[in-house]
Design a protein that fits this description.
This protein has 345 residues and is α/β, with parallel strands linked by helices. The protein is built from 9 helices and 12 strands.
Length: 345
């Protein structure tokens, strides 16, 4: 029994490779929620060293109504009569007013330096473009592609959507000869997502589940999506193309297929997925489709129509991009730009 549960030398080596340098930068939330409740449960003068929340009580708040179902994602927080919360960084027993937890401050200020992969991380790159018409050949090849498409899920959404045919026609296959794709799907798009993977040349091999929590780290029970039941999770289909491992190094079996993370802005996926993917394919080029400015990451090329212009540093990609888009405008097709170049003055 002990032999079966013992980690292999390879597993131990991989764990050491991806261990946070200088210790973890994360702090655990106290299960008691507020410091008042923590002191009460501990029977002590001070709360524990974990993170706590502080109740936000305004003039219009009716405490008898209890907690707001949407908490920090509430659209009407300035007028909502329910109780809201914020993270309480003031250290119990601090001598000065408003003094923050020293552990929190020191961890936040630590630079992520000296890691084994530091020299292999590319700067963040992005292109503000119309993905439907962008010439993907200017980008080169990637080990991992991730997409969070604006699926038409037959619901009112705060952003534009793409039709099923537009999704199926996307030339995603150009981005990879081999590697993995992470495709976020929801509602009726789950079946369409599988069809897209097949059309783009991928075989589905796994599925990642994001279990949503609210600001207080509790399971979401009042989601904003779902026709029959409130959705408290989202699915990310994982597919592969070619024979992964011939060109890039992939580490299998490092992470679990369930992410438990807090809900933030609409359509904002958990940042933890980037760490998962980097551990799967360390030090290689990756591409995100339909990204926004908060999505840009080192080692990634982010594409979307809500980004701040064009930021490219890879010399080869810059040359290819300028050849196809001489004026840097990716909101129109490459063919129209080429026709414009050939017109006489």
């Amino acid at each position: 029994s002990e032999l079966l549960t013992s980690k292999t030398t390879k597993e131990l080596s991989l764990m050491k490779k991806f261990k946070s340098q200088g210790g973890t930068r994360l702090k655990e939330f106290c299960q008691n929620g507020t410091k008042i409740e923590c002191r009460k449960q501990r029977g002590e003068q001070f709360a524990c060293e974990k993170l706590h929340f502080r109740r936000i009580i305004r003039a219009h708040t009716d405490e008898s109504l209890g907690d707001c179902s949407f908490l920090n994602t509430c659209f009407h927080v300035d007028t909502c009569k329910f109780v809201h919360y914020e993270v309480d960084y003031v250290r119990d027993g601090a001598t000065g007013p408003g003094r923050r937890n020293s552990t929190h401050d020191s961890n936040d200020s630590k630079a992520i330096a000296g890691t084994e992969f530091e020299h292999r991380l590319y700067p963040a790159q992005w292109i503000n473009c119309d993905i439907r018409t962008l010439d993907f050949t200017v980008l080169g090849k990637f080990s991992v592609v991730m997409a969070d498409p604006p699926w038409d899920i037959h619901m009112e959404l705060p952003y534009g959507t793409m039709s099923d045919d537009e999704m199926l026609r996307m030339n995603v296959t150009t981005l990879q000869d081999e590697g993995y794709i992470f495709l976020w799907v929801t509602g009726r798009a789950m079946e369409l997502g599988r069809s897209c993977l097949d059309k783009w040349g991928y075989k589905r091999c796994d599925e990642l589940i994001w279990v949503k929590t609210n600001q207080l780290q509790r399971l979401i029970r009042t989601g904003r999506t779902g026709h029959w039941l409130n959705h408290g999770k989202e699915h990310c289909l994982i597919g592969y193309k070619g024979v992964p491992g011939r060109t890039y190094t992939f580490n299998k079996g490092l992470d679990c297929d369930v992410l438990v993370a807090e809900v933030r802005a609409t359509s904002h996926k958990p940042d933890e997925v980037y760490g998962l993917i980097e551990r799967l394919a360390p030090g290689s080029r990756k591409c995100e489709l339909f990204g926004r400015q908060h999505n840009v990451q080192r080692n990634w090329v982010t594409l979307g129509n809500q980004l701040d212009g064009v930021q490219l540093v890879d010399p080869d990609m810059v040359a290819r991009f300028k050849a196809v888009y001489p004026d840097g405008n990716c909101m129109k097709s490459a063919s129209s730009q080429q026709q414009g170049k050939q017109q006489p003055k």
